[in-house]
Protein backbone atom coordinates (compact mmCIF):
# COMPACT_ATOMS: atom_id res chain seq x y z
CA UNK A 1 0.00 0.00 0.00
CA UNK A 2 1.31 3.41 -0.91
CA UNK A 3 1.10 6.56 1.17
CA UNK A 4 -2.30 8.23 1.48
CA UNK A 5 -3.95 5.50 -0.54
CA UNK A 6 -6.83 4.37 1.63
CA UNK A 7 -9.56 5.78 3.81
CA UNK A 8 -11.00 3.20 6.22
CA UNK A 9 -14.02 3.03 8.45
CA UNK A 10 -11.96 1.37 11.17
CA UNK A 11 -8.28 0.86 11.93
CA UNK A 12 -7.42 -1.74 14.58
CA UNK A 13 -3.99 -1.54 16.19
CA UNK A 14 -2.81 -4.87 17.56
CA UNK A 15 -2.72 -8.33 16.00
CA UNK A 16 -3.39 -10.44 19.07
CA UNK A 17 -6.63 -12.30 19.71
CA UNK A 18 -8.65 -9.20 20.63
CA UNK A 19 -7.45 -7.16 17.66
CA UNK A 20 -8.00 -10.00 15.20
CA UNK A 21 -11.41 -10.78 16.70
CA UNK A 22 -12.53 -7.16 16.48
CA UNK A 23 -11.30 -6.90 12.88
CA UNK A 24 -13.19 -10.07 11.91
CA UNK A 25 -16.41 -8.93 13.57
CA UNK A 26 -16.29 -5.40 12.14
CA UNK A 27 -15.44 -6.55 8.62
CA UNK A 28 -18.26 -9.10 8.80
CA UNK A 29 -20.68 -6.25 9.49
CA UNK A 30 -19.59 -4.46 6.33
CA UNK A 31 -17.07 -1.97 7.69
CA UNK A 32 -13.91 -1.24 5.73
CA UNK A 33 -11.20 -2.40 8.14
CA UNK A 34 -7.43 -2.23 8.44
CA UNK A 35 -5.58 -4.28 11.07
CA UNK A 36 -1.94 -3.43 11.73
CA UNK A 37 0.45 -5.40 13.94
CA UNK A 38 4.02 -4.31 14.65
CA UNK A 39 5.33 -7.91 14.69
CA UNK A 40 3.77 -11.19 13.59
CA UNK A 41 0.19 -12.09 14.40
CA UNK A 42 -0.06 -13.59 17.91
CA UNK A 43 3.61 -12.86 18.47
CA UNK A 44 3.18 -12.02 22.16
CA UNK A 45 0.53 -12.91 24.75
CA UNK A 46 -1.85 -14.66 22.36
CA UNK A 47 0.63 -17.42 21.45
CA UNK A 48 1.89 -17.94 25.00
CA UNK A 49 -1.22 -18.90 26.90
CA UNK A 50 -2.07 -22.20 28.57
CA UNK A 51 -3.98 -23.15 25.37
CA UNK A 52 -7.31 -23.50 27.18
CA UNK A 53 -10.87 -22.57 26.32
CA UNK A 54 -12.25 -22.61 29.83
CA UNK A 55 -14.64 -20.91 32.19
CA UNK A 56 -11.95 -20.47 34.82
CA UNK A 57 -12.87 -22.79 37.67
CA UNK A 58 -10.61 -21.00 40.13
CA UNK A 59 -12.17 -17.60 39.30
CA UNK A 60 -15.23 -18.75 41.28
CA UNK A 61 -13.12 -18.34 44.44
CA UNK A 62 -12.87 -14.63 43.59
CA UNK A 63 -16.66 -14.38 42.99
CA UNK A 64 -16.24 -13.56 39.29
CA UNK A 65 -19.53 -15.25 38.43
CA UNK A 66 -20.38 -13.07 35.42
CA UNK A 67 -16.99 -13.67 33.83
CA UNK A 68 -17.18 -17.43 34.44
CA UNK A 69 -20.75 -17.59 33.08
CA UNK A 70 -19.77 -15.70 29.93
CA UNK A 71 -16.68 -17.86 29.41
CA UNK A 72 -18.63 -21.09 29.91
CA UNK A 73 -21.19 -20.00 27.32
CA UNK A 74 -18.42 -19.09 24.90
CA UNK A 75 -16.90 -22.58 25.17
CA UNK A 76 -19.89 -23.96 23.31
CA UNK A 77 -19.77 -21.24 20.64
CA UNK A 78 -16.04 -21.69 19.98
CA UNK A 79 -16.20 -25.50 19.88
CA UNK A 80 -18.64 -25.15 16.97
CA UNK A 81 -16.75 -22.32 15.24
CA UNK A 82 -13.38 -24.05 15.02
CA UNK A 83 -13.60 -27.81 15.70
CA UNK A 84 -10.27 -28.38 13.95
CA UNK A 85 -8.25 -26.30 16.45
CA UNK A 86 -10.57 -26.42 19.50
CA UNK A 87 -11.77 -29.62 21.09
CA UNK A 88 -13.11 -30.91 24.44
CA UNK A 89 -10.64 -31.84 27.16
CA UNK A 90 -11.40 -33.69 30.39
CA UNK A 91 -9.58 -32.53 33.52
CA UNK A 92 -8.83 -34.67 36.55
CA UNK A 93 -8.40 -32.86 39.86
CA UNK A 94 -6.72 -34.92 42.62
CA UNK A 95 -8.32 -34.11 45.97
CA UNK A 96 -6.09 -32.79 48.77
CA UNK A 97 -8.44 -32.28 51.75
CA UNK A 98 -6.20 -29.87 53.65
CA UNK A 99 -6.23 -27.42 50.71
CA UNK A 100 -9.91 -27.38 49.72
CA UNK A 101 -12.59 -29.55 51.35
CA UNK A 102 -14.56 -31.89 49.11
CA UNK A 103 -17.83 -30.00 49.67
CA UNK A 104 -16.23 -26.79 48.36
CA UNK A 105 -14.97 -28.48 45.20
CA UNK A 106 -18.33 -30.20 44.62
CA UNK A 107 -20.12 -26.86 45.03
CA UNK A 108 -17.71 -25.18 42.63
CA UNK A 109 -18.13 -27.93 40.04
CA UNK A 110 -21.92 -27.80 40.41
CA UNK A 111 -21.80 -24.09 39.59
CA UNK A 112 -19.37 -24.79 36.76
CA UNK A 113 -21.80 -27.30 35.26
CA UNK A 114 -24.86 -25.05 35.58
CA UNK A 115 -23.86 -21.37 35.32
CA UNK A 116 -24.30 -21.59 31.53
CA UNK A 117 -26.02 -24.01 29.19
CA UNK A 118 -23.81 -27.03 28.54
CA UNK A 119 -24.56 -28.86 25.27
CA UNK A 120 -21.51 -30.75 23.99
CA UNK A 121 -19.47 -31.27 27.17
CA UNK A 122 -19.89 -33.99 29.79
CA UNK A 123 -20.74 -33.04 33.39
CA UNK A 124 -18.38 -33.27 36.33
CA UNK A 125 -18.13 -36.37 38.52
CA UNK A 126 -16.18 -37.89 41.40
CA UNK A 127 -13.46 -40.39 40.46
CA UNK A 128 -11.02 -42.81 42.09
CA UNK A 129 -7.45 -43.19 40.88
CA UNK A 130 -6.05 -46.63 40.19
CA UNK A 131 -2.98 -47.62 42.26
CA UNK A 132 -1.10 -48.40 39.05
CA UNK A 133 -1.82 -44.95 37.62
CA UNK A 134 0.68 -42.09 37.23
CA UNK A 135 -0.26 -40.20 40.39
CA UNK A 136 1.48 -40.47 43.76
CA UNK A 137 0.08 -43.22 46.00
CA UNK A 138 -1.45 -40.82 48.55
CA UNK A 139 -3.77 -39.38 45.88
CA UNK A 140 -6.59 -41.89 45.80
CA UNK A 141 -9.64 -39.94 44.67
CA UNK A 142 -10.65 -36.67 43.07
CA UNK A 143 -12.95 -35.05 40.54
CA UNK A 144 -13.29 -34.81 36.79
CA UNK A 145 -14.81 -32.04 34.68
CA UNK A 146 -14.82 -30.70 31.11
CA UNK A 147 -13.23 -27.70 29.42
CA UNK A 148 -11.56 -27.19 26.05
CA UNK A 149 -8.14 -27.02 24.40
CA UNK A 150 -7.16 -24.51 21.69
CA UNK A 151 -4.22 -23.81 19.41
CA UNK A 152 -4.08 -20.19 20.56
CA UNK A 153 -1.81 -18.74 17.85
CA UNK A 154 -3.84 -20.38 15.08
CA UNK A 155 -7.02 -18.98 16.61
CA UNK A 156 -5.58 -15.50 16.04
CA UNK A 157 -4.46 -16.26 12.48
CA UNK A 158 -7.84 -17.74 11.56
CA UNK A 159 -9.64 -14.65 12.85
CA UNK A 160 -7.33 -12.50 10.72
CA UNK A 161 -8.10 -14.73 7.73
CA UNK A 162 -11.83 -14.41 8.43
CA UNK A 163 -11.43 -10.62 8.53
CA UNK A 164 -9.59 -10.78 5.20
CA UNK A 165 -12.35 -12.97 3.72
CA UNK A 166 -14.74 -10.13 4.58
CA UNK A 167 -12.53 -7.58 2.83
CA UNK A 168 -10.26 -6.38 5.63
CA UNK A 169 -6.64 -5.40 5.00
CA UNK A 170 -4.12 -7.13 7.29
CA UNK A 171 -0.69 -5.52 7.67
CA UNK A 172 1.82 -7.41 9.81
CA UNK A 173 5.21 -6.06 10.85
CA UNK A 174 3.72 -2.60 10.59
CA UNK A 175 3.93 -0.21 13.52
CA UNK A 176 1.59 2.67 14.19
CA UNK A 177 3.92 5.59 14.90
CA UNK A 178 1.33 8.35 15.12
CA UNK A 179 -2.45 8.74 15.30
CA UNK A 180 -4.03 12.19 15.43
CA UNK A 181 -7.52 13.54 14.94
CA UNK A 182 -8.14 15.99 12.14
CA UNK A 183 -11.11 17.04 10.02
CA UNK A 184 -13.37 14.44 11.60
CA UNK A 185 -11.00 11.56 10.89
CA UNK A 186 -7.98 9.86 12.37
CA UNK A 187 -4.78 10.53 10.46
CA UNK A 188 -2.48 7.56 11.05
CA UNK A 189 1.18 7.09 10.21
CA UNK A 190 2.41 3.51 9.73
CA UNK A 191 5.95 2.19 9.40
CA UNK A 192 6.89 -1.12 7.79
CA UNK A 193 9.27 -2.74 10.29
CA UNK A 194 11.14 -4.65 7.57
CA UNK A 195 11.69 -1.91 4.98
CA UNK A 196 11.12 1.19 7.19
CA UNK A 197 8.79 2.44 4.45
CA UNK A 198 6.21 4.94 5.73
CA UNK A 199 2.59 5.29 4.71
CA UNK A 200 -0.41 7.32 5.83
CA UNK A 201 -4.01 6.22 6.14
CA UNK A 202 -7.12 7.81 7.52
CA UNK A 203 -10.11 6.27 9.25
CA UNK A 204 -13.37 7.25 10.91
CA UNK A 205 -12.81 5.19 14.07
CA UNK A 206 -9.77 3.73 15.82
CA UNK A 207 -9.33 0.74 18.13
CA UNK A 208 -6.36 0.37 20.47
CA UNK A 209 -6.09 -3.40 21.00
CA UNK A 210 -2.34 -3.42 21.59
CA UNK A 211 -2.53 -5.83 24.52
CA UNK A 212 0.52 -5.41 26.78
CA UNK A 213 1.36 -2.24 24.86
CA UNK A 214 -2.12 -0.68 25.22
CA UNK A 215 -0.96 2.06 27.59
CA UNK A 216 2.35 2.59 25.77
CA UNK A 217 0.43 3.35 22.57
CA UNK A 218 -1.17 6.34 24.30
CA UNK A 219 2.29 7.72 25.00
CA UNK A 220 4.05 6.84 21.75
CA UNK A 221 1.37 7.35 19.08
CA UNK A 222 -1.73 8.96 20.58
CA UNK A 223 0.25 11.52 22.60
CA UNK A 224 -2.20 11.56 25.48
CA UNK A 225 -2.30 9.90 28.92
CA UNK A 226 -3.87 6.44 29.14
CA UNK A 227 -7.28 6.57 30.87
CA UNK A 228 -6.64 3.30 32.71
CA UNK A 229 -3.71 1.35 34.07
CA UNK A 230 -2.84 -2.27 33.45
CA UNK A 231 -0.74 -4.75 35.37
CA UNK A 232 1.55 -7.06 33.45
CA UNK A 233 1.37 -10.54 34.96
CA UNK A 234 3.77 -13.15 33.63
CA UNK A 235 2.66 -16.73 33.15
CA UNK A 236 5.41 -19.25 32.38
CA UNK A 237 5.19 -22.82 31.09
CA UNK A 238 7.53 -25.76 30.59
CA UNK A 239 7.23 -28.53 28.01
CA UNK A 240 8.55 -32.01 28.85
CA UNK A 241 8.21 -35.51 27.34
CA UNK A 242 4.73 -36.67 28.28
CA UNK A 243 4.42 -37.83 31.87
CA UNK A 244 1.09 -39.65 31.62
CA UNK A 245 -0.86 -41.63 29.05
CA UNK A 246 -4.37 -40.83 27.97
CA UNK A 247 -6.14 -37.83 26.44
CA UNK A 248 -7.08 -36.17 29.74
CA UNK A 249 -5.36 -33.32 31.58
CA UNK A 250 -4.66 -32.75 35.26
CA UNK A 251 -5.30 -29.70 37.40
CA UNK A 252 -3.09 -29.77 40.47
CA UNK A 253 -3.74 -27.87 43.69
CA UNK A 254 -0.73 -26.34 45.37
CA UNK A 255 -0.08 -25.27 48.95
CA UNK A 256 -0.10 -21.58 47.96
CA UNK A 257 -3.71 -21.81 46.77
CA UNK A 258 -2.78 -21.74 43.07
CA UNK A 259 -3.37 -24.48 40.53
CA UNK A 260 -1.04 -25.90 37.90
CA UNK A 261 -2.20 -27.59 34.69
CA UNK A 262 -0.58 -30.67 33.15
CA UNK A 263 -1.88 -30.86 29.59
CA UNK A 264 -1.33 -33.47 26.85
CA UNK A 265 0.52 -31.57 24.14
CA UNK A 266 1.40 -32.38 20.54
CA UNK A 267 1.04 -36.13 21.21
CA UNK A 268 4.55 -36.60 22.59
CA UNK A 269 4.71 -33.96 25.31
CA UNK A 270 3.17 -32.54 28.47
CA UNK A 271 2.62 -28.79 28.79
CA UNK A 272 2.89 -27.62 32.40
CA UNK A 273 1.90 -24.20 33.70
CA UNK A 274 1.28 -21.57 34.68
CA UNK A 275 2.77 -19.08 37.11
CA UNK A 276 1.46 -15.65 38.12
CA UNK A 277 4.26 -13.15 38.68
CA UNK A 278 4.24 -9.38 38.30
CA UNK A 279 6.29 -8.38 35.26
CA UNK A 280 8.15 -5.11 34.92
CA UNK A 281 9.84 -4.08 31.70
CA UNK A 282 9.11 -4.70 28.04
CA UNK A 283 6.44 -7.36 27.46
CA UNK A 284 8.42 -9.12 24.72
CA UNK A 285 11.38 -9.60 27.06
CA UNK A 286 9.54 -11.89 29.47
CA UNK A 287 11.18 -15.27 30.05
CA UNK A 288 10.92 -18.02 32.61
CA UNK A 289 13.02 -17.69 35.75
CA UNK A 290 14.83 -20.40 37.71
CA UNK A 291 12.34 -19.84 40.52
CA UNK A 292 9.41 -20.50 38.19
CA UNK A 293 11.02 -23.65 36.81
CA UNK A 294 11.61 -24.95 40.34
CA UNK A 295 8.03 -24.07 41.28
CA UNK A 296 6.42 -25.95 38.37
CA UNK A 297 8.66 -29.00 38.78
CA UNK A 298 7.98 -29.07 42.53
CA UNK A 299 4.20 -29.00 42.10
CA UNK A 300 4.29 -31.81 39.53
CA UNK A 301 6.66 -33.94 41.62
CA UNK A 302 4.31 -33.64 44.60
CA UNK A 303 1.56 -35.26 42.54
CA UNK A 304 3.22 -37.72 40.16
CA UNK A 305 5.22 -40.88 40.68
CA UNK A 306 7.47 -39.97 37.77
CA UNK A 307 9.80 -37.26 39.03
CA UNK A 308 10.77 -34.39 36.76
CA UNK A 309 14.21 -32.80 36.59
CA UNK A 310 15.44 -29.67 34.86
CA UNK A 311 17.15 -31.69 32.14
CA UNK A 312 13.74 -33.09 31.11
CA UNK A 313 12.62 -29.69 29.86
CA UNK A 314 12.32 -29.57 26.07
CA UNK A 315 11.14 -25.98 25.77
CA UNK A 316 9.70 -23.09 27.78
CA UNK A 317 7.63 -20.01 27.06
CA UNK A 318 6.40 -17.03 29.05
CA UNK A 319 3.49 -14.79 28.21
CA UNK A 320 2.61 -11.42 29.73
CA UNK A 321 -1.07 -10.93 30.44
CA UNK A 322 -2.21 -7.29 30.28
CA UNK A 323 -4.73 -7.29 33.14
CA UNK A 324 -6.80 -4.33 34.20
CA UNK A 325 -5.26 -2.90 37.37
CA UNK A 326 -7.87 -3.48 40.08
CA UNK A 327 -5.32 -2.91 42.86
CA UNK A 328 -5.46 -6.53 44.03
CA UNK A 329 -2.51 -7.38 46.28
CA UNK A 330 -1.84 -10.77 44.73
CA UNK A 331 -1.16 -11.07 40.97
CA UNK A 332 -3.23 -14.27 40.78
CA UNK A 333 -6.22 -12.37 42.20
CA UNK A 334 -6.15 -9.67 39.50
CA UNK A 335 -9.37 -9.90 37.49
CA UNK A 336 -9.26 -11.56 34.05
CA UNK A 337 -12.29 -9.50 33.07
CA UNK A 338 -12.11 -6.84 30.38
CA UNK A 339 -13.31 -3.30 29.96
CA UNK A 340 -13.41 -0.67 27.21
CA UNK A 341 -12.63 3.00 27.32
CA UNK A 342 -14.52 4.96 24.67
CA UNK A 343 -13.21 8.43 23.85
CA UNK A 344 -15.85 10.24 21.80
CA UNK A 345 -14.67 13.75 22.59
CA UNK A 346 -14.59 14.15 18.82
CA UNK A 347 -17.84 12.34 18.03
CA UNK A 348 -16.91 11.96 14.38
CA UNK A 349 -13.60 10.21 15.21
CA UNK A 350 -14.08 7.89 18.22
CA UNK A 351 -11.31 5.91 19.92
CA UNK A 352 -12.04 2.62 21.67
CA UNK A 353 -9.32 1.05 23.85
CA UNK A 354 -9.39 -2.51 25.17
CA UNK A 355 -8.06 -3.27 28.65
CA UNK A 356 -7.74 -6.82 29.99
CA UNK A 357 -9.53 -9.91 28.74
CA UNK A 358 -8.87 -13.62 28.27
CA UNK A 359 -8.68 -15.78 25.18
CA UNK A 360 -11.91 -17.69 25.91
CA UNK A 361 -14.03 -14.55 25.82
CA UNK A 362 -12.32 -12.87 22.86
CA UNK A 363 -15.37 -13.27 20.58
CA UNK A 364 -17.76 -11.81 23.13
CA UNK A 365 -15.33 -8.97 23.83
CA UNK A 366 -15.06 -8.32 20.09
CA UNK A 367 -18.83 -8.29 19.66
CA UNK A 368 -19.27 -5.83 22.53
CA UNK A 369 -16.47 -3.61 21.20
CA UNK A 370 -17.87 -3.49 17.67
CA UNK A 371 -21.35 -2.84 19.04
CA UNK A 372 -19.93 0.31 20.64
CA UNK A 373 -18.12 1.29 17.46
CA UNK A 374 -21.21 0.73 15.34
CA UNK A 375 -23.06 3.42 17.28
CA UNK A 376 -21.12 5.62 14.84
CA UNK A 377 -21.94 3.41 11.82
CA UNK A 378 -25.73 3.05 11.75
CA UNK A 379 -25.65 1.26 8.39
CA UNK A 380 -23.49 -1.60 9.73
CA UNK A 381 -24.97 -5.09 9.66
CA UNK A 382 -25.51 -7.47 12.57
CA UNK A 383 -22.80 -9.50 14.31
CA UNK A 384 -22.14 -12.77 12.46
CA UNK A 385 -19.42 -14.33 14.58
CA UNK A 386 -21.57 -16.52 16.84
CA UNK A 387 -22.74 -18.58 13.84
CA UNK A 388 -19.78 -18.22 11.50
CA UNK A 389 -17.13 -20.94 11.23
CA UNK A 390 -13.53 -19.85 11.32
CA UNK A 391 -11.65 -20.74 8.10
CA UNK A 392 -11.15 -24.50 7.87
CA UNK A 393 -13.74 -25.20 10.54
CA UNK A 394 -16.58 -26.27 8.25
CA UNK A 395 -16.30 -29.95 9.22
CA UNK A 396 -18.58 -32.51 10.84
CA UNK A 397 -15.69 -34.01 12.80
CA UNK A 398 -11.94 -34.42 12.62
CA UNK A 399 -12.34 -38.12 11.78
CA UNK A 400 -14.61 -37.26 8.84
CA UNK A 401 -12.08 -34.74 7.54
CA UNK A 402 -9.24 -37.21 8.00
CA UNK A 403 -11.11 -39.77 5.89
CA UNK A 404 -11.69 -37.11 3.24
CA UNK A 405 -7.99 -36.23 3.13
CA UNK A 406 -6.88 -39.84 2.93
CA UNK A 407 -9.37 -40.51 0.13
CA UNK A 408 -8.40 -37.43 -1.89
CA UNK A 409 -4.65 -37.85 -1.24
CA UNK A 410 -4.00 -41.57 -0.65
CA UNK A 411 -0.24 -40.97 -0.86
CA UNK A 412 -0.32 -38.68 2.20
CA UNK A 413 1.25 -40.35 5.29
CA UNK A 414 -1.29 -40.79 8.09
CA UNK A 415 0.75 -38.76 10.60
CA UNK A 416 0.88 -35.85 8.15
CA UNK A 417 -2.83 -36.14 7.33
CA UNK A 418 -3.67 -36.01 11.06
CA UNK A 419 -1.52 -32.93 11.61
CA UNK A 420 -2.98 -31.14 8.59
CA UNK A 421 -6.54 -31.94 9.72
CA UNK A 422 -6.07 -30.53 13.22
CA UNK A 423 -4.00 -27.56 12.03
CA UNK A 424 -5.74 -26.42 8.86
CA UNK A 425 -9.09 -28.20 8.79
CA UNK A 426 -10.61 -28.04 5.31
CA UNK A 427 -7.93 -25.52 4.30
CA UNK A 428 -5.74 -28.62 3.93
CA UNK A 429 -7.58 -29.33 0.69
CA UNK A 430 -6.57 -25.91 -0.62
CA UNK A 431 -2.96 -26.39 0.46
CA UNK A 432 -2.69 -29.82 -1.24
CA UNK A 433 -4.67 -28.99 -4.37
CA UNK A 434 -3.04 -30.37 -7.52
CA UNK A 435 -0.31 -32.31 -5.66
CA UNK A 436 -0.15 -35.94 -6.81
CA UNK A 437 2.48 -37.41 -4.51
CA UNK A 438 4.85 -36.77 -1.65
CA UNK A 439 7.66 -36.11 -4.13
CA UNK A 440 5.69 -33.08 -5.37
CA UNK A 441 5.61 -31.50 -1.91
CA UNK A 442 9.03 -29.95 -2.43
CA UNK A 443 12.01 -29.82 -0.09
CA UNK A 444 11.67 -31.66 3.21
CA UNK A 445 13.05 -29.55 6.06
CA UNK A 446 12.40 -32.24 8.65
CA UNK A 447 9.60 -32.99 11.16
CA UNK A 448 7.13 -33.37 8.28
CA UNK A 449 7.53 -29.81 6.99
CA UNK A 450 7.66 -29.50 3.18
CA UNK A 451 7.95 -26.56 0.81
CA UNK A 452 4.27 -26.85 -0.13
CA UNK A 453 3.23 -26.08 3.45
CA UNK A 454 5.79 -23.29 3.79
CA UNK A 455 4.55 -21.60 0.64
CA UNK A 456 0.95 -21.91 1.78
CA UNK A 457 1.81 -20.29 5.11
CA UNK A 458 3.66 -17.46 3.39
CA UNK A 459 0.98 -16.67 0.82
CA UNK A 460 -2.14 -17.30 2.91
CA UNK A 461 -1.17 -16.80 6.57
CA UNK A 462 1.36 -13.92 6.58
CA UNK A 463 4.25 -16.15 7.75
CA UNK A 464 7.69 -14.69 7.08
CA UNK A 465 10.21 -16.13 9.54
CA UNK A 466 11.18 -19.51 10.95
CA UNK A 467 9.52 -18.64 14.26
CA UNK A 468 6.30 -17.70 12.46
CA UNK A 469 6.23 -21.14 10.84
CA UNK A 470 7.74 -23.40 13.50
CA UNK A 471 6.17 -21.94 16.65
CA UNK A 472 3.05 -19.96 15.76
CA UNK A 473 1.54 -21.48 12.58
CA UNK A 474 2.69 -24.95 13.70
CA UNK A 475 4.48 -26.36 16.74
CA UNK A 476 7.12 -28.16 14.67
CA UNK A 477 9.85 -26.26 16.49
CA UNK A 478 9.57 -28.93 19.19
CA UNK A 479 10.83 -31.57 16.77
CA UNK A 480 12.84 -29.68 14.17
CA UNK A 481 16.60 -30.21 14.19
CA UNK A 482 19.07 -27.33 14.08
CA UNK A 483 19.95 -28.41 10.55
CA UNK A 484 16.29 -28.26 9.54
CA UNK A 485 15.92 -24.77 11.02
CA UNK A 486 18.98 -23.61 9.09
CA UNK A 487 17.59 -25.10 5.87
CA UNK A 488 14.24 -23.39 6.41
CA UNK A 489 15.89 -20.07 7.19
CA UNK A 490 18.03 -20.33 4.05
CA UNK A 491 14.93 -21.10 1.99
CA UNK A 492 13.06 -18.08 3.37
CA UNK A 493 16.09 -15.81 2.94
CA UNK A 494 16.68 -16.92 -0.66
CA UNK A 495 13.04 -16.36 -1.57
CA UNK A 496 13.10 -12.92 0.04
CA UNK A 497 16.21 -11.98 -1.93
CA UNK A 498 14.65 -13.30 -5.13
CA UNK A 499 11.61 -11.08 -4.57
CA UNK A 500 13.73 -7.94 -4.21
TrEMBL record:
Pfam families: DAO (PF01266), DAO_C (PF16901). It comes from the Bacteria. GO terms for cellular component: glycerol-3-phosphate dehydrogenase (FAD) complex. PANTHER family: GLYCEROL-3-PHOSPHATE DEHYDROGENASE, GLYCEROL-3-PHOSPHATE DEHYDROGENASE, MITOCHONDRIAL. GO terms for molecular function: glycerol-3-phosphate dehydrogenase (quinone) activity. Its cofactor is FAD. Residues 383-490 form the Alpha-glycerophosphate oxidase C-terminal domain. It catalyses: a quinone + sn-glycerol 3-phosphate = dihydroxyacetone phosphate + a quinol. PROSITE patterns: FAD_G3PDH_1. NCBIfam families: PRK12266.1, PRK13369.1. One of its GO terms (biological process) is glycerol-3-phosphate catabolic process. Residues 9-327 form the FAD dependent oxidoreductase domain. It is an enzyme of class 1 (oxidoreductase). Belongs to the FAD-dependent glycerol-3-phosphate dehydrogenase family. Its EC number is 1.1.5.3. Keywords: FAD, Flavoprotein, Oxidoreductase. This is Glycerol-3-phosphate dehydrogenase.
Amino acid sequence: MTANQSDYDLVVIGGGINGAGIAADAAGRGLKVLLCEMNDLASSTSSKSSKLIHGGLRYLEYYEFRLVREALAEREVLLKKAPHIIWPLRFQLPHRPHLRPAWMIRAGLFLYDHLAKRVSLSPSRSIRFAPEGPLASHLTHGFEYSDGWVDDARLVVLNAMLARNHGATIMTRTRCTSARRGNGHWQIELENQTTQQLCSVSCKALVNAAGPWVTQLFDSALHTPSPKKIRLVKGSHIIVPKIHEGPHAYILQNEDGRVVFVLPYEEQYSLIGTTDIEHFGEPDQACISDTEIDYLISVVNEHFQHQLHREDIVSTFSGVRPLLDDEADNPQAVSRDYTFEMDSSDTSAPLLSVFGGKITTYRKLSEAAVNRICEHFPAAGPCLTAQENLPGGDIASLSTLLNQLQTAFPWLPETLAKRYARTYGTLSLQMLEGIQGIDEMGQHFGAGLYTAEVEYLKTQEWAKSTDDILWRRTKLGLQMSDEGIQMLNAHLTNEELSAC
